[in-house]
Structure formats: C-alpha cells, structure tokens
Amino acid sequence: MRQLALVLFFVATAVMANDPPSKPIKPLQSKEEASSSVPASTAPKEEVKPIRETKASREAKAAEAAKQKEQQASDELATKIAEKLAAIRKDKPEPIRPSVRPAIRPPHAAYSQKSEPKLAEKAKVVHAVNSAHWSYEGEGDPSSWGKMNPANAKCDSGDRQSPIDIRDGIRVDLDGINFDYKPVAFSVIDNRHTIQVNLSSGNRIQVSGKTFELVQFHFHRPSEERIGGKNFAMVAHLVHKDMEGKLAVIAVLIEPGKSNVVVQTVWNNLPLEKEEVVKAISTIDMTQILPTSRDYYTYMGSLTTPPCSEGVLWMVMKEPIEISSDQHAIFARLYPMNARPIQRTAGRIIKESK
User: Fold this and answer.
1) Residue 237 designated active-site
2) From CA 85, how far away is CA 77, in angstroms rounded?
3) The whole model's pTM is what?
4) Alpha carbon distances (Å) from 119 to 115, 165, 259, 306, 331
5) I want to staple 316 with a disulfide (CB 3.0 to 4.6 A). Which of 8, 11, 235, 251 is the partner?
C-alpha cells in the first residue's frame, strides 16, 4: 500500500512537470522588485502626456511665422504700388521718369542728327557776327562800322562825330585847362588797333568847373584831327572821365623833331604779343607829353572808334609836341595807318582860345 502511494506521487510529479499550472509559481522577489513589477492588469493606468517643445523649436517656428508675415506684407505693398502706377498711367500717358539731373554736355559733344543741321547753321551765323571785327582798311573799314553791329549805329547816323577838320573857330576867352598831373604807375597793351597806356589814378584836369580823371592815352598815325585842312604825323589822345562817366579827350598833335621822354618810356615797355599787358616797373609823368602853350580848340564830338558814342568833350591843343624820327618809325612799323577819316562838322560850334 505504501509502495502504491509512492508510485502515485511520482506519477503526479511527472505529470505536473510536463503540464505546468496556468498560474506559474513566481520566484521570490525583493520588496523593491515586487513594488515595481506589478502586473499590468493590476497596476494603475498612467495618463499619456504630449511631448514638450524645446526652446529651439519654438524660435524656429516664430522665425518662420515672421518670415511668412513679412512676405505677405511685401506682396500686399507690391500689389498696391502696381495698382497706383496703373491708375497714374491711365490718367497721364507719359511715363514717369526719375528726377535725375541730366549730365552736362561738353561743348564738343555730338548732338542728335536731327538737331545738328540747325545748330550748325546757327553756329555759322554766330561765328560770322563774332568774327567780323572793325579795322581801318580792307574788310571792316570805317565805312562798314555802323553796319557791323547795332551798337555802332552812331558811326553812320550820328551828327556829332569825330574827328573833324577844325576851321572857322570862334575866338573867345576860354577857361584854361587846369592840369593836375603827377608820376603814376602804368601798363601798356597793343590792343590790335593802337598802342594804349592804362594809368593808375592820380592824374586829373579841371575845365569849366568840372573834374575829369585821366584813365588812358593812345596814339594814331597820322593825326585824326586836321587844323585848317592840315594833318600831323601823329596824335596822342588823352582820355578822361568824370564821376558821371562823361568823357573829355585832350588831343596832343605830334610832329617829327626831338625825342620825347614819355613816348620813349612807353616804347620801352611795348608788349611782345598782341593784347598782352606789360605792367611797367617805373612810373610815367604825363606833364612831359604836354606842349608848352596851353591854348586849345574845343567842340562836342564822339569817340573815333566803334561804337562812336557821342557827347564827348574834345580839346585839341594848338601847339604840337615833337618826337624823334626813330620814335616815329617804331609806331609806323606797328601801325602804318590807324586814323578814322574826317567827319562832317554838321553846323557845330568850334571855339578856340585867343
């Protein structure tokens, strides 16, 4: 009986080894393991939480949103501009150009073929006017002065023109000319018509209660003035001006003879080129170009060169001065003839001192 019980025990054990129970026997665990390994069926269910965003991802999203907003604003602005331009073009067909100052065209720059012929023709006319220059002989001689420029109209139409043939003067007690001349600085220029000497201030005359300042003097060959039909080898015109701009000219007649210090001083400072100004280092004393006698003729006349302005007070010294033959030859070499022809008296009164 005991043997039978043992046999049954072993058989039962073998069966259990091949067919384990539905609930396996758990091995012994520690308290920590036991607490952490609660079966899923008995452990409380945990709430599923969303994954938290990082700071970098938030900044990236914000940048992207800002970019999209900026792009949207730019698109809206472009649309508004396009609509505005369309409205402007509709009202004003001419295209809108930026207000940029055009580049300055140099004088030699080429113009458009369309405008070039007209401009070239205009340039020819301007050149013809500007190139026409008065002279004493040939083209531009005294007979054409009044036609060369409207400003020279008096050269043709004036009735108080100079020079004149002085004759039949009324002999009266004329007021003497008070010469207040002193040595001053000067410069010399060959102005293509004569040798002219420009003077610093300080030389004056007083006549008939008026004061005139000597501003320049120059020479003509032969003399422009005639006395009773006679002309002289040369003449010096001393040009004065008053405070109102009115002119008074003293004519000093010149004949060959002995050397004159003033004339030689001028010749010593002759320029080497036309229109070149030579500023002298010395001074000039204008009392040394005046004749000993101060008797004179006087009349109202004009400039003897264009524009032939009238209203000029003329005083022609009766007594001529002398220059040497060498001094005369120097000027004759430069200007063989630079005298305006005699003009009509036209009933003018000529006075002469007794």
Assistant:
1) no
2) 12
3) 0.65
4) 6, 48, 56, 30, 44
5) 251
344 Rama sector, left if φ>0, alpha if ψ -120 to 50, beta otherwise: beta
Closest listed residue to residue 246, CA positions, set 279, 207, 274 = 207
For the chain, the structural domain boundaries read: 142-353
pLDDT by residue (tens digit) across 35-93? 444 444 444 445 545 555 576 677 777 777 777 777 777 677 666 666 665 565 555 44
| Given the residues 108, 127, 133, 193, the one annotated as active site | 193
Q: Secondary structure of the chain in the HEC alphabet?
A: CHHHHHHHHHHHHHHHHHCCCCCCCCCCCCHHHHHHCCCCCCCCCCCCCCCCCCHHHHHHHHHHHHHHHHHHHHHHHHHHHHHHHHHHHHHCCCCCCCCCCCCCCCCCCCCCCCCHHHHHHHHHHHHHHHHCCCCCCCCCCHHHHHHHCHHHCHHHHCCCCCCCEECCCEEECCCCCEEECCCEEEEEEECCCCEEEEECCCCEEEECCEEEEEEEEEEECCCCCEECCECCCEEEEEEEECCCCCEEEEEEEEEECCCCHHHHHHHHCCCCCCCCEEEEEEEECHHHHCCCCCCEEEEEEECCCCCCCEEEEEEEECCCEEECHHHHHHHHHHCCCCCCCCCCCCCCCCEEEC
Report the C-alpha gap between 282 and 264 in whole angstroms. 12
Q: How far is CA 257 from CA 133, 290, 320, 323, 326, in A?
A: 35, 15, 11, 5, 10
Give the CATH number of domain 142-353: 3.10.200.10
Residue 164 has pLDDT above 70, yes or no: yes
